Amino acid sequence: MDKPRSPLAPVIERLLQERGIAAKRFSIESGLGDTAIRDILEGRSLNPRHDTIEKIAKGFGLSIEALIGQIGADPAGKALAPNVRPAPDAKQLGTGGLDRDVPVLGVTVGGADGDFETNGEFVDWARRPHSLAGIKTVFAIYVVGDSMYPVYRQGDLVYAQHKRMPAPGDDVVIEMKPLAGEEVRRAYLKRFVRMAGPTMIVEQFNPGLELPIPRDHIAEVSRVYRTNELYGI
Questions:
Q1: What is the pLDDT of residue 92?
Q2: Structure-model confidence comparison of residues 79 and 28, the more confident one
Q3: Range with the lowest mean pLDDT among 108-112, 164-168, 213-217, 224-228?
Q4: What CATH number is given to the structural domain containing 204?
Q5: Does residue 160 share a domain with residue 72?
Q6: Which of 104, 111, 134, 224 is the most buried (most CB within 10 A)?
Q7: Could you write out the DSSP letters of every residue in 111-137?
Q8: How far apart (Å, rounded) are the C-alpha atoms in residues 125 and 140?
Q9: Distance of alpha carbon 1 from the chain centroid
Q10: Taking residues 109-134, what's their average pLDDT?
Q11: What is the rounded distance in angstroms from the CA atom of residue 153 to the CA atom of residue 91?
Q12: SS3 breakdown of the chain: % helix, strand, coil, rounded to 5?
């Protein structure tokens, strides 16, 4: 029985072959460990992290969406080699059939103590990945600032679910209660670390530090979806 692999593995394999680049060389030049690409190709890494996928896409001169969009595709129009197949039950990404019905929360740049500010209004619609079909509490935001770089960059689109509590290690959108006399709310995109009594401890990466947020100051916590949850990779 064939060993399961990430659906990205055959895409990476083909792109490496087209460019005549060895897996180890590409891995190192893309800023990954020297075995990272080989681990994906040989099935030791089934769910690459968002920042890993971003580096792979950049190494090939592609956006993340363009890279993922090649899953299951055959640009040459030829039959797939018999030893290259999608992983069992993998969800395939394609723009066809994706409803544009996920509300995008309007944000503005916040102050030094917040990533962004929101008045709770939605300003646009994003495409709904198949994995989020039927989930009515999903929303999206565009990343503002670079406090979570390199995991998220300015302008990245992030999907989250309202009032879905995170586990340690999950990324979250935290909306604070408005200050007296104000309608806008400060908000943060951070990584949840732990609860310490009445305080939520979160972390950011640029600069790297942990931040304590009193729970009674929080209006809502929404868990961010990982790339592999959205696209089955």
A1: 40
A2: 28
A3: 108-112
A4: 2.10.109.10
A5: no
A6: 224
A7: -TT-SEEE-S-EEEEEE--GGGTT-TT
A8: 8
A9: 31
A10: 75
A11: 25
A12: 20, 30, 50
